[in-house]
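Give me the fold.
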Amino acid sequence: MLTEHKIIIGSRGSQLALCQAEMVAAGLMQNRPGLVVEINKIKTRGDKILDVPLAKIGGQGLFVKELEDALLDGRIDLAVHSLKDVPTELPAGLYIGAITKRENPHDVIISRDNLKLEDLPAEAVIGTSSLRRQAQLRHYANSFRFTDLRGNLDTRIRKLAEQKLDAIIVAAAGLYRLGLEAKISQQLPIDICLPAVGQGALGIEIRENDERLKGFISGLHHPETSAAVTAERALLKKLEGGCQVPLGAYAELDNNTLKIQGVVADPQGRQIIKAELSGSPDEAAALGVRLAEKLLAAGGREILAAIYREAQG
């Protein structure tokens, strides 16, 4: 598919996914004048199943597998993913060739009356399908009630009014990329709601043997973001987490020190285990593994075991 002057990008078809693919396309064309970039819209399993909570669908790669299939059979040259959707284990022959500069990684609240979290009614109904968000917010206020919220960003924002919800929780990054940040009622503090692993970063997935394409995307790689999400994804891999597990992590680089925070919670938010570590960005993956081990030793192992037992019936 790839020629000297043409690249085909694979993307999901949502407004946000296409915006992200277009950002990558613009970066490629800026770095390589004369390059022609096309975007091929591909529907994933996660896009097709909208009436079931993500945690109940099961499995990983709900939003990436069909894109990876298109990469492997040559229909596209690269795939643009929200990195939080990408499993830690990739298919043989593929790898994340570049990670873009991270957008705002936090979760935010959009409320019906523009209220902050602390001002919501005691039994506020909040829309989110994320067990991670639900568990952390239940820990913050166990009187909150939650309703599953699926669909693209526009759909979720529309459901806030249609379903008469008090608030919805979404990732800040999508709102900023679509120019919808004015809708944000509050950015949730890290100590209340740690984000998903990789949230706010884009991963550009390519074929491992595609040396020419590696050169095309190298200018889009952001080393500081890469170090942070490498630590987060190492933690995720060690904990063997997915959509069914309420866990979050956030790493950031400060004066050449990488600090990572992590959380494991039971789905009801009754028990929540938090920990943090700092170290060298050159040892990002090892730092993530060490933090995962710290979380497991502090009670995370028992929480995860209980979750897996329940999932198995």
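Residues 107-187 form a domain with the D-Maltodextrin-Binding Protein; domain 2 fold (CATH 3.40.190.10).
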